[in-house]
Amino acid sequence: MDRSTFQKIEKYMLSCMEDSAHDAEHIYRVLSNAVVIAREETGVDYDILICACLLHDIGRPDQIRNPSLCHAAVGSEKAYQFLLGNGFDSAFATAVRDCIRTHRFRKNDQPESLEAKILFDADKLDVVGAVGIARTLVYKGTVTEPLYTRRPDGGISDGAGEEPHSFFQEYHRKLNKLYDRFFTAAGHRLAQDRRAAAQDFYNALYSEVTALDEEGKRALNEILQ
Q: Count of H helices and E strands in the chain?
């Protein structure tokens, strides 16, 4: 891929970025993750990989406006039409579409090509570790979800059960389950390197808010008696 082609695709990507948790910097981090992972693989089609990385989240604005939509499905079709409309051949556009369609964290519709697996891992690396925690908090604020919810007994829930959406719930539902879901050896290794940062943050935050909640209740009860 030459630089002018890269810039054409990049320009289209930039026109689609509206979500602060899935902004252009997220795209560039995913692209960096991808090319780092790809160095340890053989037979990578870098044109397909780079294009798929740049365009993988262009469906995000559609999903934000209509949560019933899947940004991976919408984005894959938008990318396909964009590429066909800009002179790329059908086989290339189809390969990129398949990468984007399967990059989302879910059990069905798994990535099949090497480029799709690298994109999946590169995108998930931006959800683990310190960056993943920060992005999740930004996203939760965007969709007005809280840090945590309370159990029926009034205590702060750790997020491990079935409960309303919150940061703690997202940590247990998704963030802490990603580490064994990588397809490439490099992706898995890099994820493990970042795991402790996310775990330490969650544990520290949970300990801090629960300790304050318990001490605050005791102090308030003494005042109100």
A: 10, 0
Kindly give the confidence (pLDDT) of every residue in the chain, 225 residues in length, as a single tens digit, with 9 standing for 90 and above: 999 999 999 999 999 998 777 899 999 999 999 999 999 999 999 999 999 999 999 998 888 889 888 899 999 999 999 999 999 999 999 999 999 999 987 767 899 999 999 999 999 999 999 999 999 999 898 889 999 999 999 999 999 987 789 999 999 998 999 998 999 999 999 999 999 999 999 999 999 999 999 999 999 999 997
Distance CA 34, CA 192 (A): 16
* Domain definitions of the chain by residue range: 1-119, 127-225
d(CA 171, CA 64): 21
Helical pair 129-142 and 185-224, crossing angle rounded to 10 deg: 60
DSSP state at residue 177:
G
Identify the sign of the CA torsion 177, 169, 29, 200. negative
Q: 127-225 in CATH: which number?
A: 1.20.58.1910
Residue 217 CB partners (closer than 8 Å, separation 6+) = none
- Rounded CA Rg of the chain: 20
In angstroms, the CA 1 to CA 15 distance is 21
Closest to 124 in 3D by CA, of 4, 29, 208, 39 = 29
pTM (predicted TM-score): 0.89
Question: What would the CATH number be for the domain defined by 1-119?
Answer: 1.10.3210.10
What is the CB neighbour count within 10 angstroms for residue 225? Answer: 5
